[in-house]
Amino acid sequence: MSKSNKPIVWGLFAAGGMATALVTPVLTFLTLLTALHFTPSLFTYECLHTMASYWIGKLIIFVFVTLSLWHSAHRMRITAHDFGIRSDLLIAIILYCVAAIGTILTGFSLLSIH
Amino acid sequence: MGKKMNKNSYIREVPRASWFLKQPRYIRYMAREVTSLFIGAYTLMLVIAIKRVAEGPDAFQNFLEILYSPLGILFNISTLLAALYHSTSWFNVTPQAMPIQWGEEFVSGRIIVGAHYIIWIAISILILVFGV
Same domain, yes or no, for B70 and B107? Predict the structure, then answer.
């Protein structure tokens, strides 16, 4: 029986959709405050560094960023198709590669924070 | 039977890139899909932020300078709007995406959607309380 990779892609898409739906609005609100110079304590170097220095903090950041990247990569692939772009393989390779690079980069960054 | 009819007679011409403009529900569907562009770009911004934290206080300060620019502010405003649209549209379809059966009956869609909104608000308040 041939195996399909759809459940994996779909599972990451669904989990990422839920994670971003629950967390991204409040996160963007906090970074907007930062951009407007009302820096919340979460978005200071000290706080982010402390958070990422714990294993649990690393894990939370890594899981959230990974899910969010794969969710949006997969959805952008569908969106490109819906806008009439038919080179799906190329689009898929580009988007999933960006997601993979983002995932690896986040992993390495987090590991180098002690 | 019409002699001039060929096998392509019944194929309607559908514009490839603008088909969704014909119906409000198609527009809403596309709006939902387009939120992924903002969320994707925002996540890449977070990836860079984490990288800058790893590189040290000066690198993180440089990142903040870019965030303070008009473009940074505009990007955060548009991402906030896109994220809110993504959240509400995502929660509103949860009864269809994951129907829950309780005994013989299916749990009412209102309860499933409501539960998601409550969890969403609780998480947001929690992060705000710890984060601000």
Answer: no
> Is residue B4 over pLDDT 70?
no
Distance from CA of A111 to the nearest CA of B (A): 9
Q: Do B21 and B85 fall within a single domain?
A: yes
d(CA B121, CA A23): 10
Chain A CA closest to residue B62? A45
Are A25 and B87 within 8 A, CB to CB? Answer: yes
Residues A72, B36: C-beta atoms closer than 8 Å: yes
Higher-confidence position of A2 and A100: A100
Domains and CATH numbers, chain A: 6-111 (1.20.1300.10)
Token duo for residue A108: 């390495």
CB contact under 8 A, B36 and A82: no
ipTM: 0.92
For the stretch B82-126, pLDDT in tens is 999 999 999 998 888 888 888 888 888 889 999 999 999 999 999
**In contact, B50 and A60? CB cutoff 8 Å:** no
Q: Closest to B128 (Cβ–Cβ): which among A18, A26, A65?
A: A26
Tokens of A59: 């894990």
CA dihedral B64, B69, B71, B76 (to 10 degrees): 50
